[in-house]
């Protein structure tokens, strides 16, 4: 089983970017990341976030398969295979987004309940606490309604 090679992928990103006479900052601006992130990828210190894989490949004019492999492919990847890779990246991005959303709602709900308990126990209703509680429950309620329909 082959694993992704950060060095090879980073080298390909740097090579293609330089062939296009673009700076790290140019690429960073297009993708909405910092030039430091581009530098890390190019040095093989890390990979781009899964949500950036397809936009990065499009920006560089290479396929997702080439980006994952870390080298240009002489035999172009067929459209069906590239489409499959694109779908996998999108599904991964959606799953990560869902997990972040769930985590945020768990935190917001926990904080709202804690504020509510503190207010009940101390019998002090700070206006900021009340606003926070109402906001959290409003967001939870609207999120539930949106998911339902």
User: What is the mean predicted local confidence, pLDDT?
Assistant: 80
Summed up, the domain count is 2
Protein structure class = mainly alpha
Uncertain spans: none
Remind me, CATH topology of the largest domain?
434 Repressor (Amino-terminal Domain)
Distance between the termini: 43 Å
CATH superfamily of the largest domain: lambda repressor-like DNA-binding domains
Number of helices: 7
Percent range for helical residues?
over 70%
Q: Please state the second-level CATH architecture of the largest domain.
A: Orthogonal Bundle
Radius of gyration, whole Å: 22 Å
Largest sheet: none
The dominant shape is elongated
Query: Helix and strand succession?
Result: HHHHHHH
In terms of DSSP E residues, the strand content is under 5%
Number of E-state strands: 0
- CATH level 1 name of the largest domain: Mainly Alpha
InterPro entries: Cro/C1-type_HTH (IPR001387), Lambda_DNA-bd_dom_sf (IPR010982), WWWY (IPR058092)
Transmembrane segments: 102-121, 127-146
Organism: [Clostridium] methylpentosum DSM 5476
Keywords: DNA-binding, Membrane, Transmembrane, Transmembrane helix
How would you characterize this protein structure?
The chain is mainly alpha-helical and 149 residues long. The protein folds into 2 domains: 6-69, Orthogonal Bundle (434 Repressor (Amino-terminal Domain)), CATH 1.10.260.40; 97-148. The chain is built from 7 helices and no strands. Helix 2 (24-31) packs across helix 3 (35-42) and helix 6 packs antiparallel against helix 7. The longest helix is centred in the C-terminal third of the chain and has 44 residues, at 79-122. The chain is elongated, with a radius of gyration of 22 Å. The two termini are 43 Å apart. InterPro entries: Cro/C1-type_HTH (IPR001387), Lambda_DNA-bd_dom_sf (IPR010982), WWWY (IPR058092).
């Amino acid at each position: 089983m082959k694993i992704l090679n950060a060095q090879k992928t980073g080298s390909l990103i740097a090579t293609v970017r330089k062939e296009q006479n673009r700076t790290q900052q140019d690429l960073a601006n297009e993708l909405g990341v910092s030039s430091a992130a581009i530098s890390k990828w190019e040095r093989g210190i890390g990979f781009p976030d899964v949500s950036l894989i397809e936009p990065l490949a499009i920006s560089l004019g290479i396929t997702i398969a080439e980006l994952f492999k870390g080298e240009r492919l002489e035999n172009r990847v067929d459209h069906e295979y590239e489409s499959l890779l694109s779908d996998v990246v999108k599904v991964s991005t959606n799953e990560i987004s869902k997990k972040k959303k769930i985590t945020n709602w768990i935190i917001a709900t926990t904080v709202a309940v804690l504020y509510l308990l503190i207010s009940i126990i101390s019998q002090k209703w700070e206006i900021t606490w009340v606003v926070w509680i109402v906001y959290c429950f409003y967001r939870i309620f609207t999120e539930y309604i949106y998911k339902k329909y």
